[in-house]
Write a structure and sequence with these properties.
309 residues, mainly alpha, three-stranded mixed sheet
């Protein structure tokens, strides 16, 4: 622990050393983060206030949107502020805190996406038993399991990194604290730690991705003999889910299925799953959904009426 405290802060190199590029990025990421928060918050409020969106699918979707807000908020505000800062520093404890929350919300999202795939499987393959199987108690338990899974995943990552000795240097070639850039700074052999991180992060991503894709394949095979309308609805729903799953898991697998090796493209890939995916989720899941759009219009009308009073 004494060796670990030799480094009391870390310095981020950020996305680019060019000041003009940083100013442009500041405006872009400020707009993107605002859109992430407002878009996902709108979904949460719409589901909470609309009786027509009382099905388990929308219940899980509201939690996913909440997780997306929290997930992007662990990295993007710091990135935005650092784009205007001369010295992009974070304390050792701030770095460990950021790392733990990143993997907590990322792990929770992985399990939530798995829960949502199970919900779609029951809804399409067992429609007569859907309300019995996916009752409120079951939905609450599944969400609780997703949060618990995020806690376990985060604790495993932070315990592996926290015990490493950091004696210097303290410059991180990234815009947030993550396991692979920190492994490169440790002044000890990190081969075994790297393998454990791959087992916890990379393998979890791969297994979850394979299970999710397999579940959607089963669903699509099940609906091939249904009516054209039934197939259209199933393809629309599953297509949206598969798109989100691919956008989230593709970059995660690319990053975390390696040990201590980092690539120049890692920062751009990280932007994809910390910014772009949370931004696209409301569009993919909700704004293309007729029921959600109707509920949003009703929410807007109610809000306008309250404003007039």
């Amino acid at each position: 622990m004494a060796d670990t405290r030799n480094v009391t802060e870390f310095i981020f190199l950020g996305l680019s050393p060019n000041r003009d590029v940083q100013k442009v990025c500041f405006v872009i990421f400020l707009l993107l983060y605002t859109a992430i928060v407002l878009g996902n918050l709108l979904i949460v409020l719409t589901v909470m206030t609309s009786r027509s969106l009382g099905s388990p699918m929308y219940f899980f979707l509201s939690y996913l949107s909440f997780v997306e807000i929290c997930y992007s908020s662990t990295t993007v505000p710091k990135l935005i502020s650092d784009l205007l800062a001369e010295r992009k520093a974070i304390s050792f404890w701030g770095c460990m805190t950021q790392l733990s929350f990143i993997h907590f919300f990322a792990g929770t999202e992985i399990f939530l996406l798995t829960v949502m795939a199970y919900d779609r499987y029951v809804a399409i393959c067992k429609p007569l038993n859907y309300t019995t199987i996916m009752n409120r108690q079951v939905c609450a338990v599944l969400v609780g399991v997703a949060w618990a899974g995020g806690v376990v995943h985060s604790l495993a990552q932070i315990l592996l990194i926290f015990r490493l000795p950091f004696c210097g240097p303290n410059v991180i070639d990234h815009y947030f604290c993550d396991v692979l850039p920190l492994l490169r700074l440790a002044c000890s052999d990190t081969f075994l730690i790297g393998l454990l991180i791959v087992a916890n992060g990379g393998t979890l991503s791969v297994i979850s991705f394979v299970v999710l894709v397999a579940s959607y394949v089963v669903i699509l095979l099940h609906v091939k003999n249904q009516s054209s309308e039934g197939r259209r609805k199933a393809l629309s729903t599953c297509g949206s889910h598969i798109t989100v799953v691919t956008l989230f898991f593709g970059p995660c697998i690319f990053i975390y299925l390696r040990t201590s090796t980092t690539l120049p493209a890692d920062k751009m890939v990280a932007v994809f799953y910390t910014v772009i995916t949370p931004l696209l989720n409301p569009v993919i899941y909700s704004f293309r959904n007729a029921e959600v759009k109707k509920a949003m219009r009703r929410l807007w009308i109610r809000t306008m009426k309250l404003g007039e009073k």
